[in-house]
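A reminder from the course coordinator: this example appears on the midterm review sheet, so study it carefully.

Given structure:
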C-alpha cells in the first residue's frame, strides 16, 4: 500500500510539472498582446472560480486568525507571478525556468536571515552553489546577458518571501484556509494592479487565460494531494522536470534552443536546492 501511495504521488508530481510548464507557453503566446499584470489577474480570477465551490463547502474562512497577513502574502504571490510572467514574455523560457528553481535556495537563506533558523555548512555550500548557477545562466557582463532574466530572479525571491510568511502563518492556521484566503485576496489586488494597463482581451485570449487559471488550480490540487501521499524530500526533485518540458515546448513552438550554459547552470541550481533544503530538513528531523 505504501509503495502504491508513493508511486501515485510521483505520478501526480509528473503531471503537475507538465501542467506548470504550460504556464510559460501560454504567457509567451500572449506576449505583446496581453500585459503581464492582466495575465496575473486573470490567472488568479479563473483559478478562484475553479476552487470556489470547494471553498464554500469545506473552508471556514472566518476562523482564520489573520487578516492583513493574508493580504500581504497575496500581494507577494501576485508580484512573484507577474515578475515571472515578464521573464517568460521576453527572456528564453528555459533560462527563466532554470532561474526560478532558485526559490528553495532563497527560502533557506531567508529562514536564516529573517527567522533565525540554524543552517549548517551543507546549506551554506548549497546557497553559494545556487548563486554560482545563477551567474552561469545570466552571464552578467557578457554580450549574451539578458536583463529580462532578472525578473525571473525577482520572482524566485518574492516566492521565497511568500513561503516564509506561509511557514509562520501555518503554525496558527490550517492549510485549507491559507490556500483559500490567498486566492480570495489575490483577485482584488490583481484588479487594482491591472486597471492602469487594461485592454479588453479578445475571445481567443480570454480562452487561453481561462485555461491558464484552470490549469493553475488543478496543478495546486495535484501537488497538495501528492504531498499528502509522500514525503517532501522524495517529491522535490520531480519539480525540476519542468525544465526539459519547457525547453521542448520552447524549441517546438518558438524555435528556442537552450545553450549549454543553461543546462549547466540549471544542474548546479537543482543540486544546490536539493542539497540546501535536504540538509535543513534532516537537521529538523534530527
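Designed residues:
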Amino acid at each position: 500500500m505504501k509503495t502504491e501511495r508513493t508511486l501515485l504521488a510521483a505520478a501526480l508530481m509528473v503531471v503537475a510539472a507538465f501542467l506548470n510548464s504550460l504556464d510559460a507557453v501560454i504567457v509567451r503566446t500572449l506576449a505583446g498582446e496581453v500585459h503581464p499584470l492582466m495575465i496575473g489577474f486573470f490567472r488568479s480570477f479563473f483559478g478562484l472560480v475553479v476552487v470556489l465551490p470547494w471553498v464554500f463547502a469545506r473552508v471556514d474562512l472566518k476562523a482564520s486568525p489573520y487578516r492583513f497577513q493574508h493580504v500581504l502574502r497575496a500581494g507577494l504571490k501576485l508580484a512573484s507571478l507577474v515578475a515571472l510572467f515578464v521573464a517568460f514574455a521576453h527572456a528564453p523560457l528555459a533560462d527563466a525556468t532554470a532561474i526560478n528553481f532558485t526559490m528553495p535556495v532563497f527560502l533557506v537563506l531567508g529562514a536564516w536571515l529573517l527567522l533565525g533558523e540554524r543552517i549548517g555548512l551543507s546549506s551554506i555550500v548549497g546557497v553559494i552553489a545556487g548563486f554560482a548557477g545563477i551567474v552561469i545562466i545570466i552571464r552578467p557582463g557578457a554580450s549574451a546577458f539578458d536583463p529580462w532574466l532578472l525578473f525571473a530572479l525577482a520572482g524566485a525571491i518574492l516566492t521565497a518571501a511568500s513561503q516564509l510568511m506561509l511557514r509562520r502563518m501555518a503554525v496558527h492556521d490550517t492549510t485549507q484556509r491559507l490556500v483559500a484566503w490567498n486566492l480570495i485576496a489575490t483577485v482584488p489586488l490583481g484588479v487594482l494592479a491591472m486597471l492602469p494597463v487594461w485592454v479588453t482581451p479578445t475571445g481567443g485570449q480570454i480562452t487561453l487565460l481561462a485555461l491558464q487559471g484552470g490549469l493553475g488550480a488543478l496543478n495546486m490540487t495535484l501537488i497538495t494531494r501528492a504531498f499528502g501521499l509522500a514525503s517532501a524530500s522524495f517529491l522535490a526533485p520531480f519539480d525540476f522536470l519542468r525544465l526539459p518540458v519547457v525547453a521542448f515546448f520552447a524549441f517546438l513552438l518558438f524555435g528556442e534552443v537552450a545553450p549549454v550554459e543553461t543546462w549547466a547552470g540549471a544542474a548546479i541550481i537543482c543540486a544546490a536546492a536539493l542539497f540546501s533544503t535536504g540538509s535543513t530538513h534532516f537537521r529538523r528531523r534530527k
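Residues 55 and 180 are 6 Å apart (CA to CA). The two ends are 27 Å apart (CA to CA).
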